[in-house]
Amino acid sequence: MSAPAAVLAGLGTHVPRRVVTNDDLTRSLDTSDEWIVQRTGIRQRHWSDPGVATSDLAVEAGHRALKSAQVDAPGDIGLLVVATSTPDRQVPATAPEVAARLGLGTVAALDVGAGCSGFVYALATASAALVAGHAERVLVIGAETFRPYLDPADRTTAVIFGDGAGAVVLRRGTTDEAGALLGFDLGSDGTLHDLVVIPGNGSRPRSTDRALAPEDQYLRMNGREVFPHAVRRMAQSSSAVLATAGWDLDQVDHVVGHQANLRILYALARQLGVDPERVVTHLEQVGNTSAASIPLALADAAAQDRFRLGDRLLLTSFGAGLTWGSAVLTWPGTTPA
Ligand code: COA
User: At 118, phi and psi to the nearest 5?
Assistant: First the structure.
């Protein structure tokens, strides 16, 4: 029986023009193209130029998503959710400025901070608002500017992260429509909050008299320890969301996982028992773009004509927090802009 649901109506992306290859990084870091490709799958990433912040990328992607959804009147959007771990400033949130620059007027606008799971968390937030009738259309943007947070001397993070933004328009529709979001599973384990962290941001470091060291502004990640949690949590969350939707794994046409590491994506596929051919990968081109990674991967696969109308998609993500989140939807045949 059909029920109200959020339906994907438009998709847009933006990455900064500057491409940084693995070889570029070997000039300043003790690393190699071979190590980065073998251990992560990443071949290049895009980094923002100095002066470019997350809202700049978000606005570009937002414009394109609105165009893709053929939304002309700004008043048609009733809520803007920006998922990011790299907001322009701690106060205010980034979303209101993005809304203003997109011409969305006095729309409700908020940031969601859930690390690399941010986009799926933001989709769930937007979907709940639509189903509850708080809005007819919602713009969801995942956007990150990691370059200023990467320690140029830390080869364990500088080779991994990239900048970019991806946005979707969701509209209020029904579960039987192509594009309907049919279930979510979200979770967190804050006992492991220190595995991926920017130590110098926020009230915790500022609550002490200790002067902040310049290195405290950089992102730190214990990748080796995070790895097995990522595989396990995404596998569990995927199974949970499939159960919610009543789908069997063999009905899933495409798995679009958070693009952190090819080895994680293929370990996830093994754990789930999914043919690796059904796993969408995009990190080779953009690295780990955190909250932007799933919409960027969706748009890339759609642009390559990988999805057919009505295909069943499983989205699954994992990140700092620790957080994880999964969603299932059918493909609406949207052309990304
Ligand atoms: N170039 C060359 N060597 C490197 C390197 C680099 N860029 N980065 C690390 N190394 C070295 C390490 O120093 C270590 O050397 P040692 O054995 O002499 O100590 C060795 O390579 C192995 O390091 P390790 O950290 O175990 O590598 P890994 O295989 O776990 O790969 C990650 C590192 C970060 C790619 C991987 O752990 C990962 O993807 N983790 C999960 C990330 C994630 O999902 N995050 C959450 C979302 S943001």
Answer: -55, -40
Note the pLDDT tens digit of each residue in 151-189.
Answer: 999 999 999 999 999 999 999 999 999 999 999 999 999
Distance 76 CA to ligand 1 centre (A): 45
Contact 193, 321 (CB under 8 A): yes
Average pLDDT rounded to a whole number, residues 207-233: 93
Gap between the Cα atoms of 323 and 122, Å rounded: 13
Query: Both tokens of residue 24?
Result: 């570029």
| Whether pTM exceeds 0.90 | yes
Phi, psi for residue 56 in degrees, rounded to 5 = -65, -40
Architecture of domain 181-330: 3-Layer(aba) Sandwich (3.40)
> Relative to the CA of 288, which ligand 1 atom is closest?
48
State whether CATH 3.30.450.20 applies to domain 4-174: no
Q: Are 83 and 139 in contact (CB under 8 A)?
A: no
Identity of the amino acid at 51: G
Please check the confidence at residue 225 and state whether its pLDDT lies above 90: yes
Catalytically annotated residues? 116, 258, 288
Q: At residue 207, what is the residue type?
A: S
Q: Which has the closest alpha carbon to 77: 7, 4, 181, 170?
A: 170
Q: Which residues in the chain are classed under CATH 3.40.47.10?
A: 4-174, 181-330
